[in-house]
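Sequence in, structure out.
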Amino acid sequence: MQEPDEERREGGCRACIQAEIVKVDSIQEIMNRGVMMTPALYIDGESKMMGKTATVEELKRMLKK
């Protein structure tokens, strides 16, 4: 089974979307963003998902918008 981060990267490649994926480990940065539950997903600085990991299909839909 693939690691979750690798699976998400592969999904971005399959969607033909250029993206930078950054894992934030800094508690201070997480708090500054107002994240209440992890994992959290932000796209272009906007909160898209908290408390669950997006599927590849969900990521494709969010990135196409």
